[in-house]
Amino acid sequence: MTQEINCFEIVKDLIDTSVKKLNLNKSVYNILSEPQRVLTVQIPVQMDDGEIRIFTGYRSQHNNALGPYKGGIRFHQDVNLDEVKALSTWMSLKCAVLNVPYGGGKGGIIVNHKELSQGELERLSRGYIRAIAPVLGADLDIPAPDVGTNGQVMSWMMDEFSRYRGQNEFGMITGKPVIVGGSMGRVEATSRGCVFTIREAAKVTGLELNGATVVVQGFGNVGSIAARLLQQEDGCRILAVSDSTGSAYNPNGLDIAAVEEFKARTGSVKGFPGSKDISNDELLSLECDILVPAALENQITDKNAAKIKAKIIAEGANGPTTPEADRILADKKILVLPDVLANAGGVTVSYFEWVQNQYGYYWNEEEVNNRLERKMVEAFNNVYGLYRKRKDVDMRGAAYMVAIERISQAMYMRGWLGNQVYQEVKREVKLA
């Protein structure tokens, strides 16, 4: 995370602006501007050489007006408290945009997971869950994977929490392998949801996806699967992809399945046969129809936004675009599909997984994907409809307004706004 740009201050400013545009009482901002609970824990882990190392972990629970807290757990060396608070706030907004009955949560540990052995990673995962177990549960706070974690980590965490409770607790965490209560389609869900929003954006902008050119920054789980789906299902030409080690660029297009195999074998996309390694700035400024930033926060800034030539930007990552960059992109008439909409497929299928755990009845992949498509299309239409109606917001502003309207009404109905009267103005956001 770029230290000069504080994601938490950015999201608070956007909430403040949205509250004012919705003519809501300032009490709404006062409640949403800080998480309801934040934990900082110290996790002792025995390393393979016998040394005991102490790792710092966090869990931020932002708002549960709409339902239990929900959000991923990130293992990364740059994790910090403000980042975790920002991510939990985004999760509240994301769930509200998709009309999923959750609030926002987020967790993280300051660690370079790539430096840990499998045994060290398991002991760290279990230690973290033991440390925050009192504030977790299927009806309280439900974690999921994020940067640096995966289904195996979720399995260890679920098992540790089950030991803590003395019974199987499959529903306390999502993103698990199918064999231990996971959902079909969950691994691809964030990427597939992003692709669904791209398809809807292509419809309203008149872009023909078959043959459309795509650049993907970040070739992890989200970016690689989105690239594969866009190529195999929509006929897009993927010009370039990148990861933390470098990039692969070919103006004639890349075979994404082959790139995935190459990265699995070598650990990098750099050096893929027939491709050229270009800088991050060069990649972002390539002429293309669709740009998918799927890496980390603050990648598109006022330093590089003017160089971007894409027609549509679909944010696969959380917070990849700064407010200054948003203004530049709006001036350039680039349609930005914001993170709280475009990458909400993961939490949506996590919700499906949670529902399946609660009922003990599991759906096939086709049913999961169909349900996901309906939710993503409905959310896109709500946000795009408000964006077209209002002349003073971009797509991000419209998404924030949809989310904050829903959360504020829930808080009002629950009596959280004190004696303040919920202003009876004509609501601009369609509520389900």
Automatic annotation (TrEMBL):
Lineage: superkingdom: Bacteria
SUPFAM superfamilies found in the cross-reference section: Aminoacid dehydrogenase-like, N-terminal domain (SSF53223), NAD(P)-binding Rossmann-fold domains (SSF51735)
Domain Glutamate/phenylalanine/leucine/valine/L-tryptophan dehydrogenase C-terminal: 183-415
InterPro entries: Aminoacid_DH-like_N_sf, Glu/Leu/Phe/Val/Trp_DH, Glu/Leu/Phe/Val/Trp_DH_C, Glu/Leu/Phe/Val/Trp_DH_dimer, Glu_DH, NAD(P)-bd_dom_sf, NAD_bind_Glu_DH
Residues at the active site: 106 (proton donor)
Molecular function GO labels: glutamate dehydrogenase (NAD+) activity; nucleotide binding
Entry similarity comment: Belongs to the Glu/Leu/Phe/Val dehydrogenases family.
Protein name from the UniProt record: Glutamate dehydrogenase
